[in-house]
């Protein structure tokens, strides 16, 4: 091949080549199983009959990151009536942690083995594959702001946790939450994708990143 033939081959500038490489890298990321939107928080629409009010993306992310930090390496996280936190954990591709979603809404059964049907009215009616005290942290957001709902849900939480609890619920539940679960209110204020009439708070029973000044 002569020099003049070489000169005819179109060449990309280094800038265009870098852009092309970046494009291919992005396409490769999108092709990873699980990056298909199945885990996007909000992909399953709110059903207000079931008291479903999803967190904002930012709150779901902060709670998921807090759960990972609290659970530790290879930790086990139970998301009880808090599907957005489970979805965010999976969206983050934290394959090093184990996460389960305990939910009444069977639409979340799309998550397979990690879905556990759960009704707070039967707090200890859980499958045999879920042993007592088998989660490093339980993240929980009970569906109703009532003493009965919090009391029954607390039974489940105490059964599941090895110690750590991260509760999100109304500010009005502070005293009952302290009595039932020994949790204290955090400085971090959870937000929802829609504005809610009730003030919400996070409560923990351990030294948590959510307690820092924001
Ligand atoms: C206040 S929402 C909390 C959702 C949270 N903010 C999130 O974004 O993940 C309450 C959750 O409780 C679930 N729920 C409704 N009825 C329930 C029941 N009987 N037992 C357990 N959970 C129930 C709803 O499906 C919903 O996911």
TrEMBL record:
It comes from the Eukaryota. It catalyses: L-lysyl-[protein] + 3 S-adenosyl-L-methionine = N(6),N(6),N(6)-trimethyl-L-lysyl-[protein] + 3 S-adenosyl-L-homocysteine + 3 H(+). Coiled coil: none annotated. InterPro entries: DNA_methylase_N6_adenine_CS, Efm5/EEF1AKMT1, Mlase_EEF1AKMT1/ZCCHC4, SAM-dependent_MTases_sf. Keywords: Cytoplasm, Methyltransferase, Transferase. GO terms for molecular function: methyltransferase activity. Transmembrane segments: none annotated. It is found in: Cytoplasm. Its main location: cytoplasm. GO terms for biological process: methylation. Its EC number is 2.1.1.-. Belongs to the class I-like SAM-binding methyltransferase superfamily. EFM5 family. HAMAP family: Methyltr_EFM5 (MF_03187). Protein-lysine methyltransferase that selectively catalyzes the trimethylation of EEF1A at 'Lys-79'. This is EEF1A lysine methyltransferase 1. It comes from Mesocricetus auratus. The lineage of its organism: Eukaryota, Metazoa, Chordata, Craniata, Vertebrata.
């Amino acid at each position: 091949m002569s020099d003049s033939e070489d000169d005819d081959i179109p060449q990309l500038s280094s800038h265009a080549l870098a852009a092309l490489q970046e494009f291919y890298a992005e396409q490769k990321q999108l092709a990873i199983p699980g990056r298909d939107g199945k885990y996007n928080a909000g992909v399953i629409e709110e059903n207000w009959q079931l008291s479903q009010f999803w967190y904002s993306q930012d709150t779901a992310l902060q709670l998921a990151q807090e759960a990972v930090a609290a659970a530790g390496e290879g930790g086990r996280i139970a998301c009880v009536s808090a599907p957005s936190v489970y979805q965010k954990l999976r969206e983050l591709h934290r394959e090093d942690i184990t996460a389960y979603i305990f939910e009444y809404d069977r639409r979340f059964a799309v998550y397979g083995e990690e879905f556990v049907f759960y009704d707070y009215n039967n707090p200890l009616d859980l499958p045999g594959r879920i042993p007592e005290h088998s989660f490093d942290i339980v993240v929980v957001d009970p569906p109703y702001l009532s003493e009965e709902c919090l009391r029954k849900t607390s039974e489940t939480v105490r059964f599941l946790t090895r110690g750590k609890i991260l509760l999100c619920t109304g500010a009005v539940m502070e005293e009952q939450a302290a009595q039932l679960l020994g949790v204290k209110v955090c400085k971090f204020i959870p937000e929802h994708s829609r504005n809610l009439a009730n003030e919400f708070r996070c409560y923990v029973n351990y030294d948590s990143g959510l307690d820092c000044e924001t």
